[in-house]
Design brief:
The chain is α+β, with helices and mostly antiparallel strands. The protein has 4 helices and 6 strands, in the order ααββαββββα. The chain has helices spanning 3-27, 30-34, 56-66, 138-155; strands at 37-44, 50-52, 71-83, 86-96, 109-118, 121-131. The protein has a 6-stranded mixed sheet, with helices on both faces. A hairpin with a 2-residue loop joins strand 5 and strand 6 (121-131). The longest helix is centred in the first third of the chain and has 25 residues, at 3-27. It is globular and about 40 Å long. The relative contact order is 0.17.
């Protein structure tokens, strides 16, 4: 298989894996979220928490049970094969707090997902969710939030004014 054919098949699969991961979070479904990880994966949370793939469900279940979590809005920036059975995806994300309709820029993030294919399916090998604070660069905060706000409005059928 040539490189372009490889990329054509890999990148949609990895994008779907990433999007399913965030959809599972938005549903507050710890089991479905955890099922997307390899047992030896690493998940690095927004607060710096580090969890092995086999422990993701146990880590998230009490969070979903005890805390109203915000819903993700995201935009994929890059997806590419890394060679063999691995691929990487980079994205920006924001969150809409429960009961609200606008993004909270204080929790904007940059996300990286590394996936590997085994037994015919793609799974998360690494997911890192890094705060996008953009210290002393409010223009970058607004750019990040603005891009995601457009996606949020499009998803909800709202028109920009």
């Amino acid at each position: 298989m040539n490189e372009s054919a490889d990329e054509e098949s890999v990148t949609p699969a990895v994008r779907e894996l990433y999007e399913e991961l965030l959809r599972a979070w938005n549903r507050r479904d710890a089991h479905a979220y955890a099922a997307l990880f390899t047992p030896d994966a690493a998940m690095i949370g927004f607060d710096g928490s580090q969890v092995r793939g086999s422990e993701v469900e146990g880590h998230l279940a009490p969070i979903f049970a005890d805390h109203p979590t915000a819903a993700y809005v995201w935009k994929v920036r890059e997806e590419r094969p890394l060679g063999g059975t691995a691929a990487m995806l980079r994205a920006i994300a924001g969150m809409v707090p429960p009961g609200q309709s606008e993004l909270n820029p204080a929790v904007n993030a940059v996300q990286t997902l590394v996936a590997e294919c085994g037994s015919g399916s793609w799974r998360v090998a690494l997911f890192q969710n890094t705060p996008a604070a953009y210290h002393h660069r409010p223009d970058l905060v607004e750019q990040h939030t603005g891009e995601l706000r457009q996606i949020l409005r499009a998803e909800h059928g709202q028109h920009q004014g």
